Amino acid sequence: MPPLRTFILKVVNRCNINCDYCYVFNGPDQSWRGLPVRMSAEVAHAAAQRISEHATAHDLDHVDAVLHGGEPLLAGPRHLGAILQILHDRVPSVRFELQTNGMLLNDDWLDLFEQFGVRVGVSLDGRPVANDRHRVSHRGRSTSYAAVRGIELLRSRPRAPAKSSGDAE
Question: What is the reported pLDDT for 157?
Fold first, then answer.
């Protein structure tokens, strides 16, 4: 069996939107309510140590760390920046990716992504009519406009690596 190269880290255990199909937050298992809201620095250090040991043991030239949630941007730029720094310092040749719903993206986030070379994927369920059928705010409102605004912001900053995930038009 080949060694692992991609590690998905759930950095936030909450979400700022209310997708009706979400198996975590709208599923029968509500045990997430008793878990910490975001990954602690101690957990980030432990994860970085284990990933580093694995990469060294298998002589990997790089590993990918995917920051996920809920919505990882709910961690806030300072906290997520600390997690990125921990991983960057302890894991040789780590490459970062982050999956977001795009609603909280702003210039502070893009500055952080540029600093660490974070590739960003934005989840969207298609055109607004399709997206807003299932991906709404906790008040039942559209999330399309904010998600597309986030995608446009990513596109406006060519140094912020972006990857496509869905149809924003």
Answer: 85
Contacts of 157 (CB under 8 A, 6+ apart): 110, 114
Residue written as tokens 């009706």? Answer: 20
**Regions of the chain where pLDDT drops below 70:** 159-169
DSSP code of residue 139 = T
Find the radius of gyration of the CA atoms of the chain: 16
Contacts of 23-31 with C-beta under 8 Å, sequence gap 24+, read: 24/70, 25/70
Interhelix angle for 77-90 vs 41-57, to 10°?
30
| Integer Cα distance of 79 and 53 in angstroms | 24
What's 63's DSSP letter?
Answer: E
Q: List the one residue out of 90, 64, 67 whose CA is nearest residue 4.
A: 64
Cα angle value 10/22/138 (rounded, 5°): 95
Q: Given this model, what pLDDT does residue 100 score?
A: 97
* DSSP string of 67-119, one letter each residue: EESS-GGGG-HHHHHHHHHHHHHHSTTEEEEEEE-STT--HHHHHHHHHHT-E
Q: In the prediction, which pLDDT does 163 show?
A: 52
Q: Is 127 exposed, middle or buried (0-12, 13-18, 19+ CB in 10 A)?
A: middle
